[in-house]
Amino acid sequence: NLTPLKARVHSPLKWDERYAQYLQRAGFLDIVVQVVGGLPPMDGPLLTAMVNRWRPETHMFHLPFGEMTITMQDAAMILGLPLDGQPVTGIIQNENWRDMVEMHIGIRPPEPEGGDSSKKMSGVSSAWLREHFDVCPQGANDEVVQRYARVWLWHFVSTFLLPDAAGNTVSWMVLPILGQVWENIAVYSWGSAALAWLYRQLCEACRRTARDSNVGGCTYMLQIWIWERMPVGRPSRLRVDPWHRDDARPTFYHVWKHVRPVRGNPDRRYRAYTNEFDVLTQHQVEWKPYDREQLSHIVFSPTCYRDRELWRCTTPMILYYVVEFHMPHRVMRQFGRMQPCPPLELSTSQQLHSIDRRKRYKENDWRLKHGQYLLLWQNKQGCDPKGGPYWRPNNEYIRWYCTSTRTKVKPSWTNVPIEYAPSDDDADIADAYDTVTRHGTQPERAPLHDYMGQQLARLLNEAGVIMEHAVGEGDGPLRAFAERVRKSCRRMAMRMNCMMSSDAHDGGNVQGTSLGSRRTALATTPRAATPSTAAGPSRRSRGKEPASPQESKDSEGEQSEDDDPTYGEELEISHDAPPVTQTQGESSQ
């Protein structure tokens, strides 16, 4: 069985107020003072449940009601770092990198054990930096203070903004930029670089299967994005501290400083979150969290809004050898705008994922190697984030989405009509789902939710067909009753996020699709997917069409005759990778 991923997080070096003036000049002070003030608790199971839904070919999270993703808007609002500016790139020269580090910080990193200079090429250990630069000496002159401030920023960028998924190494890759004049550091697009690195780490993490797997990138940014937009795993917010600094302003990171952490067994929380995401509806999502009236009294950092014309910009984001595409045109609802259907098909150039600095031990000038993407970045077109028609219920988009990709991680265990159960006696109705559940350790709601919604949608459509033909004397009460049943079925199915209002009355079953899962066969193109009427054996597959915003009232009664069933730890059908016909091609590397 797969286990939750572990987020690579590091505490910053000890803070010294003497660093503030320099980090302000570098453009980092807003986020730095918030991180120094305290880090929110990290919820690895929640991050894992979201990573399961990441698709490398679109850079989207696939949810029951459509695509969502973390965009440059979110990076700006949470981190308060610039989006516009020079791309974070340049020369990576593996040979003699210790000389370069010594030039910038005044101390030479230790040679690897055994004298093999090919080892430990990626950077220095966090412990080594703490040993030499954790505390700036009292009475130090300005040159020494600046050196310590530069090392502090280097450690922060490498372990908070751009951590990888392996070990406690502080990469030297960004040090040549951080070694420049402080004001020069501020002209780089650090917000897009952090987002590009997070995208790359998500593309890698969604394929990991080992029990000790990690996820890199700025996971604090990702976690706050989830908390802002979705109720799954969201902790109780205790208070928002008043802001007292004059040299910096808060971002939305500050709002989540004091929370009551969600506790419990990580494996159980992971399964619970997976089920909760599967039954989440579009009405339960905060689509525009940064416009909340209750936060209107907070004066946020101007950098949060400075580059708003880039929030909806489709462009490559660059961090040295990493190039990842920003695709906001697929998630226009996150900007309160109408979603074109189908979205414009643009490649995320997954072949770029094969470019890994670890495979290259000679000098690489990524400004030349990625010249075509640098040109696209320089020629990117900004736009008004509030331009375009406002969002309205769009059944066309939902229909396209549910017939083009997988939408469920925990699918129904069967598509057999419920009336074919072997007995009408409540005590006798049992099946493979109940058997697996009985021997499990944790209830899982999503498969039953999916099945019941599927059956309600089927009965609704059958009732619509019958109503067209059931005419005759004395059938008024019967027709009225059938119409009430039909309306109730429709509302229950829509409430369970399993159909749209436009699906009703077409005489056909509502067919669903299943979502490819983390560490199975995710990395494929969704356009090649085919809907499956039977639940595929995917660890994280999901199916059935989401609800429309229209008609979402509850009907009388409950969703099934078995109000309080016992659920299982895992369904057997969801343990393995889906069949080839239910995935979408070859995985990217």
From TrEMBL:
Residue stretches of biased makeup (Low complexity): 517-538
Pfam families referenced in this protein's UniProt entry, alphabetically: PMD
GO terms classed as biological process: meristem maintenance
Disordered: annotated span: 501-589
Residue ranges constituting the Aminotransferase-like plant mobile domain according to the UniProt record: 42-401
Composition bias, Polar residues: 580-589
Biased composition regions of type Acidic residues, renumbered to the chain: 557-571
Protein name: Aminotransferase-like plant mobile domain-containing protein
Protein species of origin: Setaria italica
Lineage: Eukaryota, Viridiplantae, Streptophyta, Embryophyta, Tracheophyta
